[in-house]
Amino acid sequence: MSRTAVVVGAGLSGSLMSVYLARRGFAVRVLERRGDPRTPGVREEGRSINLGLSQRGIVALREVGLLDRLKPATVPMRGRVVHAPDGTLRFQPYGTEEDQVLHSVLRHDLNVALIDEAERLGVDFRWGHRVTAVDRTVPSVIAGEEHAADLVVGADGAFSAVRAQLARGLRMDLHQEYLEWGYRELLIPLDDGGKPRTDPYALHVWPGDDGLIVAHPNADGTLTATIFLPFEGPAGFAGLDTPERVRAFFADRFPDVPALIPDVVEQFLDHPPASLVTIRASPWHTATDDGRGTVLLGDAAHAVYPFYGQGMNAAFEDCSVLDRCLAAHPDDLPAALAAFERFRRPHTDVLAELSKRNFVELRDRVRSPLFLARRKADLLLHRWFPRAWVPLYTLVSHTTTPYGEALARVRRQDRLLGGVTAALTGAVLAGLAHRSRAGRKVS
Ligand code: FAD
User: Fold this and answer.
1) CA-wise closest residue to 185 among 143, 152, 140, 218
2) Domain of life, per the record (predicted)?
């Protein structure tokens, strides 16, 4: 008899995990509080409209045979275009190799492709089913009625009801941190001639220490921009509450934006800002004595700030890792869940830190000459020694090196670079001292 699974949440990680589980022979039911996103008019509130898909997500989609089907709906992004306040643009390539590109994809298209594939494999989706309670001793969930299974997967996002229910009586460590900045999305439409208004094959960044914008291209030539601002203060969401203030703010801070988004004021004031949260939880799983279990994955286990573009990619990698753990322990579900958490959690904890650091980088440092010089040196060393020297961004976005190993490796490289820089600085200083002594002798 096949094993059963109940997955809570038909978002990106829940629908992909249901595909993996169905391929592994589980009879899968997915419970989702919203309506079917394939039904016209069903609103997908919150969350970004499009996402940057990188290597970890690509590998998972390839594993379940969906990559080739999705590729035509994605837009390659070969690097960042940095917009300076004086209107100058600077292109920073993502990497030195042809395949070191990110792919922009609509969340809706990706989600629908995953749901279609899961249904093709026999997964039973129940729309409009909000889970309100979990009994980890069965395990089962309540969504109106009780749904019991051998495996319950909590893939219900950053504000996971499954996590909250699991935490009851479990001594779960829970860390939740809100950023004091929020975000709003703005559409960069086509121009009057039906052409893209800016390079549609790059990610666009408007850095700034008190506000920043990031824009991803869409397949139709439009771009979706996300403006990140402090919630409070006169130049934050709270203070920018009239058309005049918003118009003056963009003219001052992002002067090239009104030409790209002619109705930027209306769009900006159209909807409230959304918040950004980091979540860390421990443990992620529980097991029963008779070999059943409950596990969290994706944002439910580890929501991160979006500044490394890794939330979905990490969630997809979770699904791939959990699938491998199930393969390694075919007759022992608790052992598979324990292996998953043991292997995975230290790395997603590192990702949370990296995502915070990248907020600072995007905000302040992409304009700093020191940062740009360092980035150039990184890429140059990578070109000269492609195996020995790999920049952190490349390891995170273009490889599947576990996040913790990527960070440890880059720290070793940094020590080496520090040594080289110190040696060079020492040599330069020694040279200067020698010249000044020689100069004194002459004079
Ligand atoms: P979610 O996508 O949140 O899905 C959870 C699902 O569970 C939803 O469908 C929800 O309706 C359902 N649900 C919730 N509660 C219940 C309940 N009680 N009962 C039943 N169903 C329930 N990641 C990237 O990799 N690249 C990017 O470029 C990127 N950009 C981003 C930009 C922004 C502005 C933001 C906010 C995030 C970005 N992310 C990005 C992160 C990415 O959106 C998330 O990591 C990803 O959506 C996580 O997927 P998930 O399935 O775990 O959670």
Assistant:
1) 218
2) Bacteria
Calpha distance 293→387 (Å, rounded):
41
Residue nearest to atom 38 of ligand 1 (CA): 306
- Give residue 35's identity as a one-letter amino acid code: G
What is the spatial distance between Cα 201 and Cα 221, in angstroms, rounded to a whole number?
9
Q: Taking Cα atoms as reference points, which of 236, 33, 205, 219 lies closest to residue 125?
A: 33
Instruction: Tell me what ipTM this predicted complex has.
Output: 0.99
Averaged pLDDT score across all residues of the chain: 91
Q: Give the number of the atom of ligand 1 that is nearest the alpha carbon of residue 13.
A: 51
Closest approach atom of ligand 1 to CA 161: 18
Cβ-Cβ contacts under 8 Å for 416 (sequence gap 6 or more): none
CATH architecture of 4-77+105-177+278-361: 3-Layer(bba) Sandwich (3.50)
Q: Beta strands 79-83 and 203-206: pairing type? A: parallel
Q: What is the DSSP string of 67-116?
A: HHHHGGG-EEE-EEEEEPTTS-EEEEES-SSTT--EEEEEHHHHHHHHHH
For a ligand 1 pocket test, name from 31, 160, 296, 312 the mutation site with the most ligand atoms within 8 angstroms of its C-beta.
312
* Residue labelled with tokens 């599947």: 400
- Dmax (CA) of the chain: 96
Q: What are φ and ψ of residue 256, in 5° steps?
A: -85, -5
How far apart, in whole angstroms, are the C-alpha atoms of residue 260 and residue 250? 12
Q: How far apart are the first and last CA of the chain?
A: 96
Phi-psi region of 174 (alpha: psi -120 to 50; beta: other; left: phi over 0): beta
Q: What confidence tens digit (pLDDT) does each residue in 34-84 have?
A: 999 999 876 655 556 899 999 999 999 999 999 999 999 999 999 999 999
Q: Indicate whether residue 319 lines ligand 1 (CB < 6 A).
A: no
The DSSP annotation for 216-266 comes to EE-TTS-EEEEEEEESSSTTSTTT--SHHHHHHHHHHH-TTHHHH-TTHHH
- CB 312 near ligand 1, within 6 Å: yes
* Beta-strand pair 151-154/293-296: parallel
